[in-house]
Amino acid sequence: MHSTSSYEKVGRETSYKLELQQTIKSCADSEFNSLPLRTGPKYVLTFDPDKEFEFVDEDIISVAVIREEGTNGDREMAAAFVRAGFKVWDITMEDLLSGTANLDRFRGVVFPGGFSYADVLGSAKGWAASLLFNEKIKEQFTKFFNRPDTFSLGVCNGCQLMALIGWVGTPVTGHTKPDIMLEHNLSERFECRWSTIKIQKSKAVMLKNMEGSVFGVWVAHGEGRFTFKDNNIYEQLVKDNLVALRYVDDAGKPTEVYPMNPNGSIEGLAGVC
């Protein structure tokens, strides 16, 4: 007679052997050793998700969802902003390059996720090049960035882009290395899994009044590990309340333990502003 736990053990060991073929040993070991200790995430919401939105005036706030070849998730992103009361425009990089559209009329720009230019040169590298090395486009984005009445959001590939062009950290000029970068996951593979995050006290306008909430999100990235040009930059982010999200363990504490932290970012860093 075999207990259920004995079969579970065999299953875990089999999965571990398969994982050794897909990732580095330290990450496979971490996941295997943590499984018996997992208690399951404890979700907490400090806001009411069923409460009706206080809709904004769509005649005032127009948002450009900007996409490039290989972008995905842009329709879902647009739908979310429409639901929140914004006037949303679908803008391609070609629209900006050709002069069909410009950023002067928009209060917000959003960079969705995906795999711009198939990430051939690295995540968002091609997209960033089209912004940084075309003077006409660069001038548009610099002007938008410097306006006091604008906001921006970058998710996944969009977040990688914003780091490369210096929209988080300090602005990038010429061949200057950005303050903040997203590098390959420590597991050395593409991570697609259900993770737990905690919203931090920060200056992120879209997370206002949500501080302390813990919930699950789906992550999918190969280059999601936040790194910094030097340690002082991260310390300054923390000091200035610019850390918006962190990966947390089952107790709701920021973690660097794989797979609860899927990429190895310092202190579970998952989002900045």
Automatic annotation (TrEMBL):
Molecular function in Gene Ontology: phosphoribosylformylglycinamidine synthase activity
GO biological process: purine nucleotide biosynthetic process
Gene3D superfamilies: 3.40.50.880
Domain of life: Eukaryota
UniProt xrefs under CDD domains: GATase1_FGAR_AT
A single cellular component GO annotation: cytoplasm
InterPro entries reported in the protein's UniProt record: Class_I_gatase-like (IPR029062)
Protein name, entry field: Phosphoribosylformylglycinamidine synthase
